[in-house]
Amino acid sequence: MNLQAFFASHQQLPLILGPCSAESYQQLEQIIQELDPLKPVYIRAGVWKPRTRPGHFQGIGIEALDWMEDLARKYQIEFCTEVANAQHVEHCLKRNIRTLWIGARTTVNPFYVEEIAKALKGEQAKVMVKNPMNPDLNLWIGAIERVANEGIEQIAAIHRGFSFYGNAIYRNVPYWQIPIELKRKMPQIQMIIDISHIAGSVVHLREIAQIALDLNFDGIMAEVHHDPQKALSDADQQVTADFFNREVLSHLVRRTNLLTESAAYAEIRELRNQIDVLDAEVITRLAKRMKLAQELGKLKKAYGISIFQLERWNEIVNKSLEIGKENGLNEEFIFSLIEAIHVESIQHQSKTMNQNSKLQ
Ligand code: PEP
Ligand code: MN
């Protein structure tokens, strides 16, 4: 894959700001003017809006692209917008809108991604690929590959969180391990954080942006509207340019990469060495625990006892949570840790008890 930098090297943090949806010429023009001091690299505006339920504002469509073409010329700015099929791409390119993003609901569908990628073949275009709705790293990677396979070289990934069932503080869960793993698998790709769609409200925008910067994300996308409460889509999560500047941007701390020659390096290395020793210890202890599980499997088999015993599992969970609490560790973390250990232990027991079984 031949990827070029999506953002040229910037002193300033690259920003992609603008309304969830283009609503009128005047709305776009006012937002452009209000955003001018922040010098966003691109103005975002959705033209075709995939709404979860029917009956909601579905976007202006082609007419909004004409506004964007005109305003781009008038203010010497660049727009970007979402495309969900080949026709969308053609309409955008015709109006010289060449920075496009593939939305979360489209990334999940390889047919559409392929169609969009093919429509871009041989074109001067830049593409941002949002993560799919569901936490599936391979779908995300696959969409990036499909676009790259058609010769697009400037591709960035946008992290917008993942959908889930139930209540949580954010609209979409970030599962930070997924963008981290994407970066590990595709170190050349630049990462943009879409703080608005993760947060779903204005209160968490800053903290999400700061975490992303601390994870070396390369740019921020946020929904900015001149009158958020009146926005036709995603009103709850949109902010004014002034709010974004005052409450989000001006508080963000940008830290640098760790350089081997730096003074910090030796100090950090010292702590990392201690951490490495502990990690090795944790892993060798876990191996020992799995050996015991195998012994347990032999006993259970001999006595005809099933692997899973609810009281025992409750006992393990409660003890672990208690020890975790005593040591100031997060309950959710301890639970998922002990759960992972338990599942692995069941695998070991099952292998011992049922020769050819593979429990997954
Ligand atoms: C959007 O950016 O307005 C949008 C619809 O995003 P997503 O595809 O992340 O839901
Ligand atoms: Mn939106």
Question: How would you characterize the overall build of this protein?
Answer:
The protein has 13 helices and eight strands. The longest helix is centred in the last third of the chain and has 41 residues, at 263-303. It has an eight-stranded parallel beta barrel with strand order 1-2-3-4-5-6-7-8, surrounded by five helices. The chain is elongated. The chain has two domains: 15-251, Aldolase class I (TIM Barrel); 265-353, Chorismate mutase (Chorismate Mutase Domain, subunit A, Up-down Bundle), CATH 1.20.59. The chain has helices spanning 25-35, 62-75, 86-94, 104-107, 110-119, 137-149, 177-185, 195-199, 205-214, 241-248, 263-303, 310-326, 331-353; strands at residues 15-18, 42-44, 79-83, 99-102, 126-130, 154-159, 190-194, 219-223. The mean pLDDT is 95. By secondary structure, it is an alpha/beta fold. Manganese (II) ion is lined by residues 20, 223, 233-234.
